[in-house]
Amino acid sequence: MGSLNIESIATEDQSEESKKVAQMRALVEAQDPSAKEADDKALRRFLRARDHDIDKASAMFLKYLKWRRSAIPNGYISDEEVKNELSQDKLYMQGFDKTGRPLLVLYGGRHYYSKREMNEFKRYVIYCLEKICAGMPEGHEKFICISDLKGWGYSNCDIRAYLAGLDILQNYYPERLGKVVLINVPSIFMKAWKIVYPFIDKHTREKIVFVDDKDLKTVLLNDIDESQLPDVYGGKLQLVSIAD
Question: Pfam families in the record, alphabetically (predicted)?
Fold first, then answer.
């Protein structure tokens, strides 16, 4: 009986959410006809990001549509537009976690403030997120990321870039991040973390996990099968650059 009640509540919640998505669609399409091209899943992500407040979610989505026309005028970011960022081999994408979410590996120690040009970096963030979303398996909307900070130091610290990337992720790709696992975290990184943390919204904060070195493989294997875990962490998959 208990399981039936839970299923009934879940069905009611989904029905209520569907009604709100329909109301949201009417609002955004009235203000921006291009909203008709968005599917219900996209609207639902924005709705959830604003705790099912239709007005706030609609405003967020309309801002996104306007931003997208400006930030991605051709509908995509080419490799040529982010060639400096790609040459640094910071991000890899292959494999899936146990729930089927795509797996990314980000090397924070390969990002250098001195090599970064802000507009290109923003394009790079968009380029990566667009690739991730385009390769999302059927039935999934989120990805999981291993953020490896081995070797991270002052030359890698780039608060402006971190905040710019966070802004793009939170405001224009809401409910895409499933989990971030930070590993090999040097104590020096926590100084930068204290500056960035206040800018991370509550939904994103809940998805961030710091892992002690001694627990690394155990924690990773809780989420990722050995066959899908990169070989550098004791698994069986080789890393593949996001450009490939």
Answer: CRAL_TRIO (PF00650)
